[in-house]
């Protein structure tokens, strides 16, 4: 590889991306050093546990989900035929991972590997360095079929839910021998492997010193996989593919240009942006896509089809970020959700759409938020009436029980009538069949989240002129009040008779992951889960001073147990600052809530400290499950100096910019410029501000203020300015913009 591809100087955005950031997890799932182009179907990463693993399990061909689910596996080998295996476990060294390129030395084999991806195809280069040893290449899969024919291998692997992954692979040198490999034996006479554990092997003369292998993948057919390959990688020049990948990444990451900040900040920022661009993935192939919802190949009508999106995580910041950076792509993602709903049995929006279908994970139905947020920000190239119908079905035509796609039952009828999910007492037997035995009712989390979803429905209904329905869902959006305990200012589960569950511990009640009442996080986090009406929460808690005291307590309250006991019950509640969990998405908006209570300086302080405490350019630089952009989008927004606290409301909250200059080029060609004079690690506090040339005292601004280009100017200092943004007239809106007109 050319030197400028492998180790360019720190001049372009992609050179600040460190895929190794967070590869060693503090507690749960590590990040993955994924090699791919933005939102592309073909993704790979080294097949191992995490960075500490001493072995590579072969070489990857394709992964179909964010956390693994590898399809096919490639193993180069050089040595004695008796040592051949379906998958080789390699000692390795000198590994380099770039978003657009991968290289590694396989030590025992004395093999060097280079790899570069395109969108639906990729290319490997192997240097066989052992003299007088036969070079081999083994391709294996699960259940399916593989045929070897000259210098080509093609076939498919069956995945669950009627999905097939097809492959078409070519080598630049025709092998001398090839055939089916099964049960440790190589049959050179047999050309087709069928059934379980499909595997073929190829070999060359010992004189071969290098080999190029290119392949295409498809969810439609072998023929389409071949077309994908020939369209994207017509030759065997790996450097050409890597250079094009580098160009694409710089173009995509370069939509946000930063100046100033520390070296660590620049790495964290662009690495986080890179992680936001992994999912969802585009599975349109020459204008067609395969849908697992009806097992048919469809014409995409000029709108690419996207899937693999964990909406419970991504609605909060990843989707709002996409609205700014690439509204047309975001529109295609929304249209993809609508296509899924159209072919889904209940015509409801997906919750965790994956390549294999909607896995219905987590709680609530926040695809509703994605629709409402796009519409209110002027992204409207989709059928709102259709979206509203599917959104209603998501809330009303299937159960609200977490991790379930069952029809509505008693629990749902109770919520519709009483306005909350009833909870069970410790030890009380579950009798509702649709409740998952592990995930439980999550009574408070589902009540609060559904209140938010219904507010989003009210926004959509109002946009359609459906006044009665808009009013109904707006009333429902206050259902969080039904679980507010005025004696403690916490959201507290109630039984079916309307009585608070007592006795109660806001840290630990609720069993594993607090799932009886909350979800992965405890009551201290869900105390703030009223994204759509924080202004009302201020009043419920007794006013601004009490609200700030309660926020402060969240960041200062000790765990309540030794760490090993705390995390044994709440393993997802990571990245702790007091009871605040920087490692899980329900916490992301919390540090911005000081803006509602006349204390924006506290938001500025918290954002700077949280990001620097938990997001670093090192192997443990991620505080929790990254969730394919779920956490990273928080970092991107926060380091730019603003954040979408309430998706569905066209408002951004101001925090503390990390860079002296930021230029964000939006998809309409306009530019948002953010200038932070005197910005430094110490100078984190806003002293004064201007928006589009006018003095600005509000700790928020609207989407309308920037959508056609804008300029936000700050003067920063090292002492908190308690006056800026603290006036009663400066409070951010809740529920609707009209509150602040």
UniProtKB/TrEMBL annotation:
Q: Which GO terms describe its molecular function?
A: carbohydrate binding; peptide-N4-(N-acetyl-beta-glucosaminyl)asparagine amidase activity
**In this protein, which residues make up the domain named Glycosyl hydrolase family?**
224-718
The Gene Ontology CC terms held by the record are: cytosol
Pinpoint the Glycosyl hydrolase family 92 N-terminal domain residues: 16-218
Question: What keywords does the record list, in alphabetical order?
Answer: Calcium
Q: Which domain of life is it from?
A: Bacteria
Name the coenzymes or cofactors required.
Ca(2+)
Which Gene Ontology BP annotations are present? carbohydrate metabolic process; glycoprotein catabolic process
Q: How does it assemble?
A: Monomer.
Q: What is this protein called?
A: Putative alpha-1,2-mannosidase
Q: Which organism is it from?
A: Paraprevotella clara YIT 11840
């Amino acid at each position: 590889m050319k030197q400028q591809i492998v180790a360019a100087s720190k001049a372009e955005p992609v050179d600040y991306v460190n895929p190794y950031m967070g590869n060693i997890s503090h507690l749960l799932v590590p990040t993955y050093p994924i090699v791919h182009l933005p939102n592309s179907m073909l993704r790979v990463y080294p097949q191992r546990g995490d960075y500490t693993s001493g072995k590579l399990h072969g070489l990857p061909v394709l992964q179909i989900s964010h956390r693994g689910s590898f399809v096919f596996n490639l193993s180069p080998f050089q040595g004695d035929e008796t040592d051949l295996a379906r998958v080789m476990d390699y000692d390795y060294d000198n590994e380099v991972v770039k978003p657009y390129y991968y290289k590694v030395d396989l030590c025992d084999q004395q093999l060097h590997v280079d790899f570069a991806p395109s969108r639906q195809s990729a290319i490997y280069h192997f240097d066989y360095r052992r003299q007088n040893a036969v070079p081999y290449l083994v391709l294996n899969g699960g259940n399916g079929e593989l045929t070897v024919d000259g210098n080509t291998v093609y076939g498919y692997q069956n995945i669950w839910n009627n999905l097939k992954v097809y492959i078409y692979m070519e080598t630049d040198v025709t092998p001398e021998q090839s055939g089916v490999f099964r049960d440790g034996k190589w049959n050179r006479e047999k050309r087709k492997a069928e059934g379980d554990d499909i595997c073929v092997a190829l070999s060359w003369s010992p004189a071969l010193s290098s080999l190029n292998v290119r392949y295409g993948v498809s969810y439609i057919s072998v023929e389409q996989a071949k077309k994908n390959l020939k369209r994207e990688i017509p030759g065997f020049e790996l450097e050409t593919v890597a250079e094009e990948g580098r160009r694409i990444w710089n173009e995509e990451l370069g939509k946000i240009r930063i100046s100033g900040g520390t070296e660590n900040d620049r790495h964290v920022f662009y690495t986080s942006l890179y992680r936001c661009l992994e999912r969802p993935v585009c599975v349109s192939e020459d204008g067609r896509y395969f849908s697992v919802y009806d097992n048919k190949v469809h014409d995409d009508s000029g709108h690419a089809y996207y899937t693999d999106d964990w909406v419970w995580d991504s609605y909060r910041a990843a989707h709002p970020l996409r609205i700014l950076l690439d509204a047309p792509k975001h529109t295609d993602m929304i249209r993809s959700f609508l296509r899924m709903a159209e072919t889904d049995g209940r015509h409801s929006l997906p919750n965790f759409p994956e390549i294999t279908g909607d896995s219905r994970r987590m709680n609530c139905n926040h695809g509703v938020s994605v629709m409402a947020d796009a519409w209110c920000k002027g992204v409207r190239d989709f059928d709102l009436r259709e979206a509203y119908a599917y959104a209603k079905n998501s809330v009303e035509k299937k159960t609200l029980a977490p991790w379930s796609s069952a029809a509505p039952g008693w629990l749902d009828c109770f919520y519709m009538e009483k306005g909350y999910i009833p909870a069970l007492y410790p030890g009380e037997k579950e009798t509702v069949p649709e409740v998952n035995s592990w995930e439980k009712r999550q009574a408070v989390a589902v009540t609060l989240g559904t209140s938010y979803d219904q507010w989003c429905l009210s926004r959509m209904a109002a946009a359609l002129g459906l006044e009665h329905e808009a009013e109904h869902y707006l009333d429902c959006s206050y259902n969080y009040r039904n679980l507010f305990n005025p004696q403690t200012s916490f959201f507290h589960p109630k039984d079916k008779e309307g009585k608070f569950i007592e006795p109660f511990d806001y840290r630990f009640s609720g069993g594993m992951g607090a799932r009886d009442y909350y979800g992965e996080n405890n009551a201290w986090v869900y105390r703030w889960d009223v994204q759509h009406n924080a202004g009302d929460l201020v009043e419920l808690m007794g006013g601004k001073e009490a609200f700030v005291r309660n926020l402060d307590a969240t960041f200062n309250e000790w765990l309540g147990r030794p760490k090993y006991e705390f995390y044994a019950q709440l393993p997802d509640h990571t990245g702790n600052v007091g009871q605040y969990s920087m490692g899980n998405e329900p916490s992301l908006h919390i540090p911005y809530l000081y803006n509602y209570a006349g204390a924006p300086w506290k938001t500025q302080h918290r954002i700077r400290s949280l990001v620097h405490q938990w997001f670093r350019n090192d192997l443990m630089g991620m505080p929790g499950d990254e969730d394919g952009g779920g956490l990273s989008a928080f970092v991107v927004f926060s380091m730019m100096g603003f954040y979408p606290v309430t998706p569905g409301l066209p408002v951004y909250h101001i925090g503390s910019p990390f860079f002296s200059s930021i230029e964000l080029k939006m998809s309409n060609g306009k530019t948002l410029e953010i200038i932070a004079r005197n910005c430094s690690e110490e100078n984190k506090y806003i002293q004064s501000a201007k928006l589009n040339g006018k003095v600005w005292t509000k700790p928020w601004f609207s989407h309308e203020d920037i959508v056609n280009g804008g300029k936000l100017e700050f003067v920063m200092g090292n002492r908190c300015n308690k006056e800026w943004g603290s006036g009663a007239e400066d409070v951010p809106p809740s529920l609707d913009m009209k509150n602040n007109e």
